[in-house]
Amino acid sequence: MRQSVRTYILVIILFLAFITIRAFQDTLFYDPFIAYFKSNFLSKEFPDFNTIKLIASLLFRYVLNAMISLAILYLLFRTKGIVKVSTGIFIVAFLVLCPIYFTLLYLNDVGEYMLLFYIRRFLIHPVFILILIPAFYYQKKKQKVV
């Protein structure tokens, strides 16, 4: 019982780390699109941005969120296999979504930003943890039945 209480406290602390990252995103990361997407962006031009700084900042934020997510998954499931599979998912997702994101940044017309908006969400927010926890929980329950 003591182990599970400690595990849940650590998981809560890690979720608080996500909240902290979000709270300090303006100072931690270079992202001129934070303010842009908070506004009425469908009728506005993109703000000027530095591509190299944006890629570096996006990568840093993605890796931070991925590392916290992997720690949460390990604490909840205590299986290195789940961490390995999840690491692969995070890497493939970044390698697929990042080029799409930057392609859309350079090719989209004014008002056609919704796909860009949602791809950006997957890159800067820990959305995958919300998908992976129930998926691995379901898999674990299904294996116990068989």
From TrEMBL:
Membrane-traversing stretches: 7-24, 54-77, 89-107, 119-138
UniProt key word RNA-binding: no
Entry keywords, A to Z: Membrane, Transmembrane, Transmembrane helix
InterPro entries to which the protein is assigned, alphabetical: ExosoTase_F-assoc_memb
NCBIfam families, alphabetized: flavo_near_exo (TIGR04127)
Protein known as: Exosortase F system-associated protein
Organism: Neptunitalea chrysea
